[in-house]
Description:
Layout: E1 5-8, H1 20-24, E2 29-30, H2 50-64, E3 69-74, H3 76-87, E4 92-98, H4 108-114, H5 118-130, H6 132-138, H7 145-155, H8 160-175, H9 177-188, E5 193-198, H10 209-214, E6 217-221, H11 228-231, H12 233-249
Parallel strand pairs: 1-2, 1-3, 3-4, 4-5, 5-6
Helix pairs in contact: 2-3, 3-9, 4-8, 5-8
Amino acid sequence: MAYPVVFIHGLFQMLRDLPAAGCLAPVPVLIPDLPGYGERQNVPRDEVSVESAAACVREEMRAAGFEKAHIVGHSVGGAVAVLLAHRYPEVVASLIDVEGNFTLKDAFWSGQMARMSVPEVQAVLDGYRADVDGWLRRGGIEPTAARAAIARRGFDAQPAGTIRAMARSVVEVTAEPAYLDYVREILDRGTTLQLLAGERSRAGWDVPAFVESRAAGMSIQPGVGHMMMLEDAPGFLRIIAGLVAASRAA
């Protein structure tokens, strides 16, 4: 059965412009805004968390009529995917973890934002918006008009309060020993877990040895870093399509 594919965005909603539907057709695709993001920007800040995000994805799947799906979680979205798979295993056909947060070492962006006040996060966000090309270059990404437009829309997709609340939540969740126990339980159930990293950012991804040894595979997207879907969306989606096909065949 060709299950749908659900993408879960990271600390910033940088997946809204992902042309996934066309690249993965005829497989249905869902890219929901998590609480505090996009169409959900106005939810109370105490409802912005990794836990509420996992519940939101489950509800969005139900609303779309998806009984089960391949779950693709990027960065903070990887932590959301872990909680989704742990709490609602019946809806997960497979997990594709794209440089998701396994430990506090992975929460490099979140760790910085979690220690800031909301006005400080706002200042950082304003700085990104004022110099999008500079933000891209600092990430090793050659600026283009298309990439800058996507990044700018991504920065506008959530307020500073959302970023701070989600950053604090992912730091709290991944700091708990129980979090990696969730990953073990997911693997023990037989859920297929695929890992995907960018060539430039793989060395900084703190994947526990037991995760890498038990995963179905580690794919490397060549020539890109952590924001691979922004840097090379077609290449990213080709890899995702291949991993979904491999999971179906397993």
